[in-house]
Amino acid sequence: MPDITKNVPVPSKFPEQGRQSPTTGKKLLDQVSDAIRLKHYSYRTEQTYKEWIKRYILFHNKRHPKDMRVQEIQDFLSHLAAEKNVAASTQNQALSAILFLYRHVLQIEIEFPTDIVRAQKSKTLPTVLTHQEAIAVIGKMNGTPQLMTKILYGSGLRIKECLRLRVKDMDFGNRQIIVRDGKGEDDRFTILPDSLIPDLDLHLQTVNLIHQKDLKAGFGEVYLPYALARKYPNAAKEWAWQYIFPALSRSTDPVTQKTMRHHADPSVLQKAIRSAAKLAKVTKPVSPHTFRHSFATHLLQNGYDIRTVQELLGHKDVKTTMIYTHVLQRGGLAVKSPLDS
To answer: What are residue 303's phi and psi, to 5 degrees?
Structure first.
């Protein structure tokens, strides 16, 4: 995610810093945090929304959002599109943050116009590796990054879904992975490849040793979603809740301030995949998400029904899955070149 606060001065005092809500007694950004956590959004989303709200306030010379409405929102979003040339997804993210502020914090319903200046949405097709290219890249990797990449390609997970996997999410008996709280907060099942089971079993033995050392040192807790930490106070130290791909070191949770072992950082896998792609001499741009694209495309190439692929990927709308059918139309809409006639 790009740094949305780059070159934006952050004042020592925002409008809410010197005044408190008459009803809650909390500062505005603290109220935003409370509302986001109530809806179980991720910590990253919380920080991103708060930064967009800061930018919105700064753009309007630190006016309080309760004194602004549709016109000020439209001016800010138009500024992002016309002057900052942000991507459509970035502008949508800003709009989501601002609407969240009004609807869930200020309790003000906004009727938004349809004629707003929108950032141009690019029409890009996903990069897809051939099966040989995918195996070649994986072959140039080793250790935990290789295992994670095998899961991305073999099960079609997003990078965050892979990193957030816990021990209890592996159903070895039924050969399936339970992807909990995926995009849109929906759980789903996907494939657990038979070929991964020996490597996963060995990996989990190593992770268990790390967990036992943490417990002996007086730690061993992991973050628990929602209110589970209060409902099951001992669950955070249980083996079933531990991350399959833990970080190398313990860290302080920014919300609870407890010392825990979080999951691995996504940059570790991203760097490993880029390096492996270069070693494999794959000239296409390769990222962790490329393996998810390749998973979907190769299933369709092998004749699997698009609805099945949709469910495995966790797409709510089959139109999202339909984009992968472009690879099946070799040569662009299956047109045969006259040179090949």
So the answer is: 95, 10
DSSP line for 168-218: GGEETTTTEEEE-S-TTS--EEEE--GGGHHHHHHHHHHHHHHHHHHHHTT
Least confident residue range of 3-7, 103-107, 110-114, 145-149: 3-7
Give the Cα separation of 40 and 21 in Å (integer).
Answer: 23
pLDDT in tens, 104-113: 999 999 887 6
Check if 292 is active-site.
yes
Q: Which two tokens stand for residue 23?
A: 């009803």
252: which strand partners? 259
* Continuous H helices in 60-141: 70-82, 88-100, 131-139
Is pLDDT of 208 > 70?
Answer: yes
What pLDDT score does 315 carry? 92
Domains contained in the chain, CATH given: 1-123 (1.10.150.130), 131-326 (1.10.443.10)
The pTM assigned to this predicted structure is 0.79
Catalytic residue list contains 153: no
- Per the annotation, the verdict on 103 as an active-site residue is no
Out of 60, 63, 66, 158, pick the active-site residue.
158
Q: Per the residue annotation, which of 37, 62, 203, 289 is the catalytic one?
A: 289
Among the options 188, 292, 293, 298, which is catalytic? 292
Write out pLDDT tens, residues 214-243: 999 999 999 987 678 788 889 999 999 999
Q: Look at residue 9 and tell me whether its pLDDT is greater than 50.
A: no
Enumerate residues 6+ apart whose C-beta is below 8 A from 191: 154, 155, 156, 175, 176, 177, 312
320-145-134 Cα angle (round to 5): 55
Is 289 assigned a catalytic role?
Answer: yes
189 and 143 Cβ atoms separated by less than 8 Å? no
| Token pair recorded at residue 301 | 């190439």
- Looking at residue 1, its pLDDT comes to 42
Catalytic residue chosen out of the listed positions 49, 153, 223, 324: 324
- Catalytic residue of the set 62, 79, 183, 237: 183
pLDDT, one tens digit per residue, over 45-54 is: 999 999 999 9
